[in-house]
Design goal:
Blueprint: E1 3-6, E2 10-13, H1 27-39, H2 42-48, H3 53-69, E3 78-85, E4 92-100, E5 103-111, H4 115-131, E6 135-138, H5 142-151, E7 156-159, H6 161-185
Parallel strand pairs: 3-6, 6-7
Antiparallel strand pairs: 1-2, 3-4, 4-5
Helix pairs in contact: 1-2, 1-3, 2-3, 4-5
Length: about 200
């Protein structure tokens, strides 16, 4: 690209519509690599398109930066909150999704699974937007429930079915065990052993 040394403006570089800044890849190719990096591992993407892993990383960073700069939250009516574990041990990230019929998208990722981390999501969207949320789907982790109640004052909190059933099964097992123990103490032989 041509450079001009303007006496008033200084050194200027010719702008081209297919490239951005000092990237060595054109915008269309970076979009293409980033698209495939969502479907394959970054290593597989690099091998498939005969490029380097660094170029795939650069492409993903370009797309993420562009997305963050042009992000419009708009009105959010329903969100889902959950965490995923990564690495070894108990390392988590908190995820918040918009889960509406016409729009399902990842809104925010927070490091760790803590109240302080989740609080940053509500700082990002602000009080006004948080109060407009009508539905929140989450598990029964107490810090999530506390912050949802605090910030989403008009929302119906829908608990994740998996966690509700898991808690119900745990309680049923405890009741069955205590009833079987009581039957043995009363002199009866429990009919169903080792079964649910």
């Amino acid at each position: 690209m041509r450079r001009v040394n303007c006496p008033t403006c200084g050194v200027k570089v010719e702008e081209v519509p297919w490239g951005t800044g000092k990237h060595t890849l054109c915008n269309a190719y970076m979009l293409h690599l980033a698209h495939w990096a969502r479907k394959l591992s970054w290593k597989e993407t690099a091998e498939s398109f005969h490029t380097s892993w660094d170029k795939v990383v650069q492409s993903v960073q370009y797309v993420v930066e562009w997305g963050l700069a042009h992000r419009e939250l708009g009105t959010i009516r329903a969100i889902g909150v959950d965490e995923i574990q990564y690495g070894s041990g108990h390392q988590y990230v908190t995820l918040v999704y918009q889960i509406e019929a016409g729009c399902i998208r990842l809104l925010w990722i927070g490091k760790e699974r803590t109240m302080a981390s989740f609080e940053k999501f509500f700082t990002l969207i602000g009080k006004e937007l948080a109060e407009k949320i009508e539905f929140v789907c989450s598990d029964m982790w107490k810090p999530y429930l506390t912050l949802i109640e605090k910030h989403c004052t008009n929302a119906l909190n829908i608990l994740d079915r998996f966690h509700v059933v898991a808690k119900l099964n745990k309680v049923l097992d405890e009741v069955r065990a205590s009833e079987a123990k009581k039957m043995v103490q009363d002199g009866y032989e429990p009919v169903l052993k080792q079964s649910r």
